[in-house]
Design a protein that fits this description.
Layout (H helix, E strand, L loop, with lengths): L1 H5 L6 H8 L10 H5 L6 E2 L9 E2 L2 H7 L2 H4 L9 H16 L20 H8 L2 H16 L4 H11 L3 H11 L6 H11 L4 H23 L3 H6 L8 H6 L8 E3 L20 E6 L5 E6 L3 E6 L10 E2 L5 E6 L5 E6 L4 E5 L5 E6 L6 E6 L5 E6 L3 E6 L4 E2 L4 E2 L27 E2 L2 E2 L8 E2 L4 E3 L5 E4 L23 E3 L18
Antiparallel strand pairs: 1-2, 3-22, 4-5, 5-6, 6-7, 8-9, 9-10, 10-11, 12-13, 13-14, 14-15, 14-16, 17-18, 19-20, 20-21
Helix pairs in contact: 6-8, 6-9, 8-11, 10-12, 11-12
Amino acid sequence: MCQIIWTAEPLPIESLNVMRQHFQTVDLADVIEILTFLGPLLSGTTDWITPVSPLHSSFYEFLQDSGRSGPFYVAEDKVHLNLAISSLQVMQHGLRFNICGLQSSYLKNTEVEDLEQRVKLCIPPHLSYSCRFFAHHIQKATLTPALGVEIQFFLRSQYVLFWLEALSLLKALDIASTALDIITNCMEGYEDVYAIAKDCIKLVQTFEYAISTSTPHLYLSALPFLLAESVLSKHLFCNFSNLPLLLGGEGDLWPEIWGPFKGHVGTVHSVVFSPDGMLVVSGSEDNTIHIWDAKDGAQKGNPLKGHAAAVYSVAFSPDGRWIASGSQDHTIRLWDSYTGLHVGSPFRGHTSAVHSVSFSPDGTKIASGSWDQTICLWDTKTCSQIGNPFHDTTPGQWSICFSSSAASALVNTNGLTIRIDSEEVHNQKDLIAVSLDGWIIGPEGQLLIWVPKSVYDRLYYPWNSLVIPKSHLELDLSQMLHGDTWQLCYVEKV
């Protein structure tokens, strides 16, 4: 009765028996034997699929009250330890990659016609229970060496991903962060396990929307953004291949949330970190540029003033010394980040608002994009224009940056320009689009990949016409498996 009473939700006899097989205690009597004489007090005792529950809650209340029940008292004792270990072992035996056999990564979960039936068939009640409540039992149990070993094995293996996959299919991914928090609280002495749990929390917080929308994108969209040096990636990537590759960029792609940084009196149009991550620069509708301390959000010095209209774009030079700004007043200005002083004369040449500025990797040039449908290149020492403007028929150059390679850059213009073998695909607007919720989708609404908001301003977008600094990111999709081949991204290794 101890197991039946202290489960977090009622389970049928078959599932109770499966979990009981993993108990550490010597009393492994079949659940049927225990329930034989309790039929008048419980429902679910005559078949294998109905959850076992009391006909009246007062029965359980009686058994849990030692003063009233006497010799029939059912204490928690070690039951939560047994249920925690049992749940972890049930997941190790039952979870697997693509557990419900999803054929295509293009579809939302809601578009898979028979998904509900697949979930019931492939994720039986004891496995569903274990995925949703194992952390509850860990929290209630006393951490023993045996339980610690089970938790370590779970987090250091592919099962932690398979668990997130199952939660997505069970529409229960929202409990993952809480479960992982419980693990971090009880495993603080296990450094690598603690670090993996923290990485998993970041992954869930960043990609919960994508994973809940389309389960395959746990692997296709979330894994590519794992930092190579993270503890989680070192334990997971050996089994995965043919995923999108993230090229370029520096720093944590899943940053902690700080702020708000307050000081502007108008809309903030552009924000960028300094190369060393110590400063933040912002440009605003209030015509000013602010420099902030990235650690505490304190404003550094006075606002940088000089533009006669809204500041639409700001950028740091690679060495962090200079700040470039582009404005609605048609000009680009250069600033000393140490003193906050304006350097040289404004860069004049555009005939409309400047929406994007970027430094070359060596810091000697600035590229600017404008609503006048031109891109200009400037010498930072002389503040003069280099050569003639690049003309483009796209209405307004919203973003430009330099890149070492155009072969794998993710680009778009309300549709996505993909460059393959350095040749631009024609009719790009008919191929791929970037939706407002972060999905990059195909012409018939196929879900290709989801991009987290924290890197929106660092990726090459469709309105990129010329590409410049190493802080920007490229997604190499050339080897990516997707659609009905997505399952091949995982290979089980013995």
